[in-house]
Design brief:
Radius of gyration: 26 Å
Largest sheet: 9 strands, antiparallel
Order of helices and strands: HEHHHEEEEEEHEEHEEEEEHEE
CATH class of the largest domain: Alpha Beta
Shape: globular
Helix content: 25-40%
Structural class: alpha+beta
CATH architecture of the largest domain: 2-Layer Sandwich
CATH superfamily of the largest domain: START domain
Number of strands: 16
CATH topology of the largest domain: Alpha-D-Glucose-1,6-Bisphosphate, Chain A, domain 4
Mean pLDDT: 81
Low-confidence stretches: 9-24
Distance between the termini: 90 Å
Length: 338
């Protein structure tokens, strides 16, 4: 009888200590690790965007006898997902929720077995010239009686995130080492230019007036689109058709992707880009160096015997409207392929 009382007292004290410890821990846990990776952000982005590349650097997917399969509409797109399981009977799903191109990927981890658990996270990228600051972040919550486990979760996954960042750095640096001497240091990719309806203003402009033309007319098109109940559906586009080096003029158009059932005013044109094959690169910097980037695309197309058609398309993601430091301006340059 005395032994039973001792056991009961021990259980009461132990339970009290456990519950008391739970009071000391918050319901939510959060972990964030960052690393400066010695590679341009577009190379790093390719590694973190596609689940197919996660096995190159993500220890969670390659260790502990785990195997995985991609089962989604298209890898690298919003709502794409990866299913995983291991020999311990644990299984779950990683779902891409939102993609901010070359900047941030929001995802959710759903552990289905042995017990349902949701974890939200993101991977963010901040370009710093030819380096990239990469941040891994995730957070979740536990009910009151499991709060004490938050401490162990944070300690365990801090080590996992650190190793993932270190391996991502190794992979990305190697990619950069291979590619940095090619085509003036730019990585050029073959892809598809997505279907777009655009409103535009097209003129032949002197070289010295190009920047003023685009800056003024992007705003003009957006204002007209708003007045005509159009929705802006993409980034500003500079369309470059035909340069005349003798007279120093360029036939160009300022264009903005729009969507709606109306028409624009008589000073504006409307056209549709069909989905088509293209090559592109990501350019970071001011307007002066952009011609060298376009020359890299030109060289690539010649070496690969690609037939290019007009216009050259500059898709502006970050410019002086967002940040004054021109080294951080981001333009995606497209060459359309016949």
């Amino acid at each position: 009888m005395k032994i039973i009382k001792v056991i009961i007292l021990f259980l009461i004290v132990t339970s009290g200590l456990y519950l008391g410890a739970c009071f000391l821990f918050p319901q939510n846990y959060k972990l964030e690790k960052s690393l400066i990776i010695n590679s341009p952000s577009d190379l790093v982005y390719e590694q973190v965007l596609f689940f197919e590349n996660w096995k190159n650097w993500n220890k969670f997917l390659t260790g502990n006898n785990q195997f995985h399969t991609i089962a989604s509409v298209e890898d690298g797109k919003e709502k794409s997902y990866l299913l995983w399981k291991n020999k311990k009977g644990e299984e779950g799903k990683i779902l891409i929720l939102k993609i901010d191109d070359l900047k941030k990927i929001d995802y959710q981890i759903f552990i289905e077995k042995p017990k349902p658990i949701f974890v939200n996270g993101y991977i963010s990228l901040e370009p710093e010239l030819n380096n990239t600051k990469v941040t891994f972040h995730f957070e979740g919550s536990n009910p009151f009686y499991k709060r004490i486990f938050n401490f162990f979760v944070e300690r365990h996954y801090e080590n996992v995130l650190t190793k993932n960042l270190e391996q991502l750095n190794v992979i990305s640096e190697n990619e950069y080492r291979i590619l940095k001497e090619e085509y003036f240091g730019y990585k050029i990719k073959e892809s598809e230019f997505e279907e777009k309806n655009v409103g535009y203003i097209r003129k032949t402009i002197e070289y010295e007036e190009l920047n003023d033309f685009f800056n003024k007319n992007f705003d003009k098109i957006k204002k007209e689109a708003k007045n005509c109940n159009f929705k802006i559906t993409g980034k500003n586009l500079s369309l470059l058709y035909k340069p005349d080096d003798i007279n120093r003029v360029y036939n160009v158009a300022a264009a903005v992707p729009i969507e709606g059932d109306s028409t624009l005013g008589e000073d504006f044109g409307m056209m549709k880009f069909e989905k088509q094959k293209a090559i592109y690169l990501n350019y970071y910097g001011g307007n002066f160096g952009i011609y060298k980037a376009e020359q890299a695309l030109q060289n690539f197309s010649i070496n690969n015997k690609l037939k290019i058609k007009k216009p050259i398309i500059r898709e502006h993601f970050v410019g002086k409207e967002q940040i004054t430091d021109s080294n951080k301006w981001h333009t995606k340059i497209w060459f359309l392929i016949n």
